[in-house]
Write a structure and sequence with these properties.
By secondary structure, the chain is an alpha+beta fold. It is 40% helix and 12% strand.
Length: 220
């Protein structure tokens, strides 16, 4: 088995699934069946999957993409005078976030292979998924998902993705990466805490560091 093959089976939840609290347990369906439910062309589904909008399952490098049936059923409800376009789907996701739809109960998400958990902020062994917990999560004893895309994380906190990435690199925030070319995801429970530090304004790095210092003092 090559290192590339070791990342399979590969599952990734999309934004639509996340705002509904769907898990990766399935059922998963082929692209043709997904088209039958949604009316969305298979090449469009593939593009949305690459952009993280919808979920995907690949059992091997050569295997066809499989799509999450409950997510396809949600997309089918967004039709107006034809299949929904990307703008409609993103507006729907944003409305679900603003309406609190992303506050579904945390669910366990099964991942391919054994998770590589790194408490020090670095990747280990080259295995996926790689999970690293940040200082905010540690001092608040947050140790589980669900995980959010960078776009969702920015919407929730009001902090630009580039700044969240710097905080992640500095060890303040947790991250999860499910494959070598898969974007980082952020820990939602940790981001909820961060979002409340700004008192109505986006938090700053100084606010986050102060919270960590205060929480550490309270825990010792």
């Amino acid at each position: 088995m090559t290192s590339a093959d070791s990342i399979y089976p590969h599952r990734r939840l999309g934004e639509v699934a996340e705002v509904h609290g769907f898990t990766d347990d399935g059922p998963w369906i082929a692209a043709g069946a997904a088209y039958g439910i949604t009316g969305i062309n298979t090449w469009v589904l593939a593009r949305w999957e690459r952009e993280g909008v919808i979920s995907v399952l690949r059992t091997s490098r050569s295997a066809s993409r499989l799509y999450l049936k409950p997510e396809m059923e949600v997309l089918a409800t967004l039709t107006a005078h034809g299949p929904p376009d990307l703008r409609r789907v993103r507006c729907y996701v944003k409305m679900r976030i603003e309406d609190g739809g992303h506050h579904a109960p945390p669910v366990a998400k099964r991942a391919a292979g054994r998770p590589t958990v790194d408490g020090k902020g670095g990747e280990q062994l080259g295995e996926f998924p790689v999970i690293s917990f940040g200082l905010v999560a540690k001092v608040n004893r947050v140790r589980s998902g669900p995980w959010m895309t960078g776009r969702f994380a920015s919407l929730l906190t009001g902090v630009p993705i580039s700044r969240l990435d710097r905080w992640r690199t500095a060890g303040l925030l947790s991250y999860r990466q499910d494959g070598p070319d898969v974007p980082m995801r952020y820990l939602r429970a940790e981001l909820v805490i961060v979002s409340e530090l700004g008192e109505g304004e986006p938090p700053t790095v100084h606010t986050v560091r102060r919270h960590v210092r205060l929480a550490t003092g309270m825990l010792t």
